[in-house]
Batch of 4 targets.
Target 1
Amino acid sequence: MKTAGFIGGGRITRILLNGFKNANVSFTRISVHETSEPVANALKVDFPQIETSGTDATEAASSDWVFIALHPPVVMETLQAIRDSIRKDALLISLAPKITIGKIKSVLADVPNLARMNPNAGTYVNKGYNPVCFAPDTDKNVIREFLDTFEKLGKVPVIPENHIEAY
């Protein structure tokens, strides 16, 4: 079983966590790094199995799957701050618009498994439409495992990166 880490605990993290819960997708550990204590506490009420941290992103960043669930203006500085915690075999999934795989790669040059995803609210009830694109050197087994999991939450078309903003 995989571990999942979320850097950011806002709306999209809640949507994905609820989708996982509804689809009976389980992880060995789910860590959420959220700096807003009220947001983290509300997540913990609805998803008591998660571990939350507002001060240290290390645990979330060292997961098998690391979701970057932040607004674009803080993504690059956050990647700089957590880059030493991200394992080389992890899959980093950015949920932020506008930050390309190339920009992510400029900070995480040693992490080959990178993706961008644009999940929608239907994922909350496992009727999502969640387009995703992967870096060219992402391990095919990592991609397959990710798609197999996310297909339980709705449709997951693999698209070219230059189309992701259209969704």
Target 2
Amino acid sequence: MSAESQAEQPEARAALYIDGFNLYHAIDDLAQPHLKWLNYWKLGEIIIPKRSERLVGVTYCTAYYPGDSQKKWRHEQVIGAQKVFGVDVVLGHYVREDMGCRECGNEWQKPTEKEGDINVAIHLMRDGFLDLYDRAYLLTSDSDQAATARLFKQQFPMKRLTSVVPPKRQPSVHITKYTDGRKVSLNELHLERCVMPPVVFKPGIANTRRPKEYAPPEGWVHPDQRPK
């Protein structure tokens, strides 16, 4: 293909779908809390090949953890910041499930996140049927989404699905056998490049500030400001 014909090729429309629960716990395991204060739209822009694709949507599926007002406030700040950058935030919910120990007889209730997996799946598929993207990126290592990937391949043979793996997680072979062969494994540098400024503000949308728990460690420098 000539340089002229390559230049005439339109950019493919790309969309990122984030399993927030799966990503959060992967980041939490890194023990670097400042990496929780991320711009997910920028993460999408980093993931896609800039020369051939254009990011048109990011969907972040999550839920507020019950019973902890400080944790909810931190989550609200993250969500508010996402809305400033144009991320579509889809909220699920938690339920309390009865748990028990057979040995000691103790009983308790465990908060369990609901709707996250389903919200990722239905929004990815809905947007495909609406033809809102050409290439979808699915950020999760949860093998439950293999059913989504399988249906995607059946329904959209002309579209492409790429698996995006949270940091320090293994890709799900059950998902990747239905994707386009390329996968993106996130690392700490990917996340560092997406760390937001302390205040994220847009009139009429949100005015959020970084929780003190997510402040970078002393001496940390954003990758954009490091010497080349």
Target 3
Amino acid sequence: QQAWIGLGGYTLIVLADDLHVNMFLAVIVGGMVAALVALPTAFLAFRLRGGYFAIGTWVIAEVFRLLVASSTEWLKGGLGRSLTAAGLIARPLREQYTYWLAVVIGAGAIALVYYLVRSRVGLGLTAIRDSETAAMSVGVKITRIKLLVFIIAAFGAGVVGGLIYLNALRITPQGSFNIQWSAFMAFIVVIGGLGTIEGPIIGAIIFF
């Protein structure tokens, strides 16, 4: 997840500052960029299983961090970049727009998860969780469903990455690609309860 948060954050900075795209729109585009990058990434990550998958995805995220950190001319490497486009709008108005964008993103994420869980994809995910072998035997397209969820998760994390740095106004490779983001998500889900939609919501409230 830290890979997508970092990509979403840097997409926001590049689009808003270098290409003069509306910074609130750039937050959503950051999610699209993360989803696009997730597609080829999945073909590497899906070769791994269990603990190897967890380690492999962490290594992939670290590769993204190193690539950004080494781009000293364009992305300013380890020094990071500031969102200068934020200076074009009054601070109270920017903070108000950021808040309502966060509300829309949060509500949209919950609605999307609710829809997925109650769709055929949700049934397939439940079957995969219980037993991949049994799911495959009844015709569940395991790889296709996993890929879909992987891309949707990347999109969501990418959007959140843009939102985080729209609020913070400054980004660095060390901060944006930090494993703490994945750890926070794991803690929130465990605190709130696994296997429910409301669990992570409650977990987020308690955690923060």
Target 4
Amino acid sequence: APAGDLERLKIAFTYGADAVYIGGEIFGMRSAAKNFTIEEMKEGVEFAHNLGKQVFVTINIIPRSEELEQLPPYLLQLQEIGVDAVIVSDAGVFSIVKKTIPNMEVHISTQASTSNSVAAKFWYEQGAQRVVTARELSFDEIRSIRDNVPEDMDIEAFVHGAMCMSYSGKCVISNYTTGRDANRGACAQPCRWKYNLVKENENGEYEEVINGIDSSFFFNSKDLCMIEYIPQLIECGITSFKIEGRMKTAYYVATTVRAYRMAIDAYYEDPENWKFNPVWLEELKKGSHRDYSTGFYFDRPSDKAHNYESASYIRNYDFVGIVRDYDAENDLYIVEQRNKMNVLDKVEVIGPYKETMFATIEEMYNEDGEPIESAPHARQIVKLKLDIKVDKDYMLRKPIVTINTI
């Protein structure tokens, strides 16, 4: 699962992730994410290892020569705090990793565009333990890689999240239009912008190339969602399912990890009789998302894999609070507000390894114990009386109500 900061790391593990991938303050592909200091990484690694879980650190930019002198001391720090693996895409970075910390597990990033078994085997022979395949592969192509690489090489693949319109991130539109380097963690996502595509005719006039659609978000890919196809993902030889989204919220991490955890666990409980539960997909849709597609898994996508009408996220629910503690003396839950909530609001409550619950906020108090009717302030700490029992790190959400006016 993705973890953009320490809170999201802990939420990912609490809600069922086996490993997280994070970025440090240098060499990562998400420069706009909060990212981790070495001290925060150390705390995150200790938290993970106490649960028997793992932390992988991204070193997957394509660096310039002058930057590489920073790499060996950084790698030694990662080794010292017990990071489980580093994720790299550049051959030079790979070489420095193997020379500096030869016992560190190395994973090959999707940025390396590994699309065939020869490339995967090459990385294995250099000492890589895992390859994150290019996102442009089908089930059959992944199975072909699995069948032609050593059994002890792991295959990881993205199963959920935003898709790059280019080949595993090999895009320079952001560089050209804004000067922000997509392959150095600063993509401006121009694929989400609206365009008009025209060509110059023989008279020097411009005419539209694309006709018949109302809008021109023609680079705008839908999000990947493979929760309906857990058996196929496992049976084609994927070792590790990867969720996109280090820039996403703690609520996104919780809902996405929780849904996939339930689907995967259901498969392993009874593989022969596994049946997709529509509730899992409904849970994913209760987080901020774009329309979903199956990407390249069923061969090359059709034009239905893009949304030409809008690049906006779909939001049907507000994440309104997260349970931080319990005041046993007064039977009140200490909650950190994330969106406005009110007394008598009916909310949904999600927790790890639990079905969705429904509750009413019966009473609300501020930190001084004074009764209040609403919590409108960002990250306000309040005490709630609910009509159900909940636990630490459970999340409260409520539907977004729209009022139509004439």
